[in-house]
Amino acid sequence: MSEGDLGYFGPGSVSWQVHREVTVLFGGARAVLMQAAHPLVIAGARETGFYERNPWKRLQRTLILTYTMTFGTKTQAHAAADRINEIHTRIKGVDEVTGKSYDALDPELLLWVHACLVDSALLFEELTVGKLDRAGRQRFHEEQMLAAELVRIPREIIPPTVPALRSYMRDVIARGDLQVTDSARKVAELFYDPPAEAEWRPVLRGVSRLAFATLPPPLRDAFGIRLGAGKRAAMRATFAATRLARPLLPPKLRYIAPYQEWRLRERGIDRPSEMAHALKRVGIRPDA
To answer: For the purposes of burial, counting CB atoms within 10 Å of the CB of 171, is it exposed (0-12), middle (13-18) or buried (19 or more)?
Structure first.
């Protein structure tokens, strides 16, 4: 990271406060499942051969690009957004399940993807951290509108408040736009049975249970997930225990790598950068 360039957000932002937490990162599994339940969103992933060629590595690359827009320099954020936009430019066609046309640059499809990420991050922050009040949640939403604009989502179509965003999501579900197809089930299987090379593999099955349990009820039913009283109680206990234990965890378990590295630099400690290595893998200069 360039000297003095803390990107579009910086350590005083709510975006850093939320996205630095590993437990919030786990909410990304919920977001991915919700995105996969949109047949036109998942059609694009199917077109790229997502499932046939190292699906977990592709998921990791997407995560690196997404987090670069939060924690990277402004140059890195734009490079990450450009990479995402370039990929989306090539993804268009006709969905074999619904017969509808899809285009990965369709603002409405991009809005659904974005909304799932924001809603899931806020939900898992509430369940596992619990520091944001209503104003903090709204500030996070507004900060993330900038990230949305970088990937070509017009600000004017983004619901302006968190309640409005969640109302939009309920409307999408209620009008029947979503459908759990075979492709969506393959995404679910990535979390149920992670490949051997997946980082955090030992905890991903537990994370997947939380992700499925926190889906909106219509989507949970569509994925075939049943929550009895016992499972509901176990889920509440798990979140409560996580919220209590989180402050006691060492930084390497509590915070994601980009934030850990910034904390070390602030203390004058220079160590090999995992983030720099990750940026190189996706073709972004780590010193930009």
So the answer is: exposed
